[in-house]
Amino acid sequence: MLTTQPDDNPLLGSREVHVVAPGVYTIGLQGNSLAVETDQGLLVIDSGPAPAVVPETLDRLREHTDKPVRWIVYSHGHLGYNYGVRGFLEAAAERGEPRPTVIAHENVVRRYRRYLETAGLQNHINTRQFRRPAKAFPAVPPLTFPDETYGESLTLGSTGRTVRLLWAPSETDDVTAVWLPRERILYGSAAVINGIPNIGTPMRTMRDTVRWADTLDRLAALEPATVIPEFGPVIRQGGAEQLTATAAALRWLRGAVVDRLNEGKCADDIVHELDYPAELFDVPWMREAYGHREYIVRDIVRSETGWWDGNPTTLHPSRPAVAAAARAAAITDKQAVLDHAARLRDAGQVQEALHVIDLLALAPGESPELTAARELKNELCGLRAKEATSYVSRSFYRVTD
Questions:
Q1: For the chain, how big is the Rg over CA atoms in Å?
Q2: Mean pLDDT across the chain, nearest whole number?
Q3: pLDDT tens digits for 150-180?
Q4: Which among 57, 7, 1, 56 is positioned nearest to 32, based on CA atoms?
Q5: Inter-residue contact 93 to 58 (CB < 8 Å)
Q6: Distance from C-alpha of 228 to C-alpha of 19, rounded to nearest angstrom
């Protein structure tokens, strides 16, 4: 079960409790997380990465309110956001309080079943994306299925403050945004992340760019006075405008990519050809701390095309090791390849050097030239990691198989 992560992981919460408005708190279990006071008790959104982190957070929250936790809401179904739910259930039992009701969008149930089926795959992806050893992840994820689900919306609270849960498909198809109508406070959940939308992460399933834009426009139409993103500072002014601007950037990307697909261009050409409008992309809320604009481009391409890159060689390829061995065997002067890759590195052309060194680095065998190639590739990947703005990109560059 996840308890700690690399220091530069932007998913970590602060573990601090901050007052957003009377009775509304960010609690920092994963990202911001949220706790809201109602007449019926506390509503908690996202329970954190492990039960062990819950007691300290609850102690801090109890400095502001002693209300029992009445509901625990899953903001979405990604693993790690709700592993801490059992800590809340145990805390309620210790205080002699009724068991909190766990609520999620109905699509979380399907996602959790898929995660149980593909647990090994999910762990493999997470070891690479979060730079954690395999033993850090449970063989079977400790999922707590929701007690109650909803479809489009659900209102909690029968007297006093009411809270509306809104289906907000975006990063996943099971996202729940939280709307406090009286205060006009919006918790954007995974739909609002104070960075470029996390679409097209290299090892994840596809995400619908236009659907995410539609969700942002729908949330902006609420005219929130305050927007709490999943990550980053609370937005006190201009929150609705930020949502609509992000939606506009996503729609621009969709149009620009489809235009080039209609011209017969492939993903590798498109990512290097696009000229991103500064007014849409060179703004603080579109920073590439986790996601990346090129990821989105590739996801849009995937949504409209198949897996083939158009090169006849890759239509029915050999096993990777067999193909790599054949390429390496064709090179009689392997030292020349090593020298050329090193020259490219020294000239600052690190990505070009990676393309060259793969002529040798991927081949099986322990000859001095192949070993040197793999060592140089590791060095080049380290250099690329320093250049990368996205945490995800840095993670994949730093992974050694």
A1: 24
A2: 94
A3: 999 999 998 889 999 999 999 999 999 999 9
A4: 57
A5: no
A6: 12
